[in-house]
Amino acid sequence: MEMTIWSISIILLMVWIALPNLLIIYTCVRAAAQAVRDNARRDEETGQSERIPGLNRDNTRRDEETGQSERIPGLNRDNTRRDEETGQTERIPGLNRDNTRDVETGQSERIPGLKPDDLESLPYLDYGGPGIGSSLECAVCLESFKAGEKCRVLPTCGHIFHVGCIDSWLLKTGACPICRTSANSDELEVSRESVSGEFGLEMV
Question: Does the keyword Translocase apply (predicted)?
Fold first, then answer.
């Protein structure tokens, strides 16, 4: 009986000693949770996000006619693309996890897709083999260009993609998937000499 009372006394003493530390830990956890909630509320009040047209949260686009969803080539669910050779993932520049794009104001800006007529006005090229010191691959599908393949050059930034890959992208959002520069420009043109000399492309 005396041993039981002694054991209970020791347990109560340990609880009494540990209680202040438990209260401190509880207070810190509660303060951290409140800070997270305050930050989330402040972000909602100061900046709004607008979804990039044509993309769902899981990086799929829905065909309105068939009702089926198609995954965007080269994108994982968290807006990264995986290099099959190195096994590393790379986040797509300019995209947040909810498929929005941050600008200097802290808000997200929608870039509308190109019209079919505007799309057809973009340079249309045949890939003729890599130039000196260049190793090219399409940033959308991550496949290397092959001789004779149809490629399209964005006139505002000079980035090159497979025609099928970039056309599908630009119909949904009219920005380069690499640098997010608007692809719709009637003022800038791609020089045939610079393109063919640097990248081994032949203007059609």
Answer: no
